[in-house]
Design goal:
Number of helices: 3
Low-confidence stretches: 1-25
Order of helices and strands: EEEHHEHEEEEE
Strand content: 35-45%
Mean pLDDT: 76
Radius of gyration: 17 Å
Largest sheet: 7 strands, antiparallel
Helix content: 10-25%
Strand order of the largest sheet: 4-3-9-8-7-6-5
Oligomer: single chain
Structural class: alpha+beta
Distance between the termini: 8 Å
Length: 180
């Protein structure tokens, strides 16, 4: 699974739109498996380095990271990547465990609260205890079997807010030639 870290936002490009409750009936998104292009745009405001992260950095690393955060304040940052999505990846139950385990710096799992779900739309909240703690509200929707969109709004205790917009476009049934 390809993961992008941007100012504390962990985005699994292969699985960001696949989720459910662990005890709910297994359901899959109604999209085509194969090669997908994912465009991820993030905008952050009020972001600060956590004391825990700062303590792990050298003064030069800390200064470089603080400058990067300052230079991106309020400005969209877009990345595009190609991913191979399998039929198994489309199971909404598969990603819930990954989302719960996202808070890698602690032994405590993130909690997922599913607000609503269907084969075309999923709305959920991800609550991570941290430190620092964070809350993310996701809305993921299939516009067709070849298009998907997701919006996430994240707030992190003492560190600001960020928004993530994801647009997925199905490319082909074959993943041949994709760099994984």
């Amino acid at each position: 699974t390809r993961v992008i870290a941007f100012l504390g936002i962990m985005v699994s490009l292969d699985n960001v739109f696949l989720s459910a409750t662990p005890d709910a009936h297994a359901e899959s998104f109604n999209v085509k498996p194969g090669a997908w292009e994912m465009t991820v745009t993030t905008v952050a405001s009020g972001m600060k380095l956590s004391p825990e992260l700062s303590a792990k950095m050298t003064p030069a690393q800390r200064a470089q990271m603080e400058q990067m955060v300052k230079s991106r304040e309020g400005k969209p940052h877009t990345m595009t990547s190609h991913s191979c999505i399998t039929k198994e990846d489309l199971s909404q139950d598969r990603i819930i465990k990954e989302m719960e385990d996202e808070d890698e710096d602690t032994a405590v799992q993130c909690k997922i609260k599913v607000i609503s779900k269907s084969s075309s739309k999923l709305v959920l909240d991800q609550l991570c205890p941290g430190p620092p703690s964070s809350n993310t509200h996701f809305t993921i929707e299939t516009k067709s079997t070849e298009h998907i969109v997701a919006i996430g709004n994240r707030s992190e205790a003492g560190s600001g807010k960020s928004r993530i917009d994801i647009k997925g476009q199905w490319l082909s049934p074959s993943c041949d030639g994709l760099d994984e």
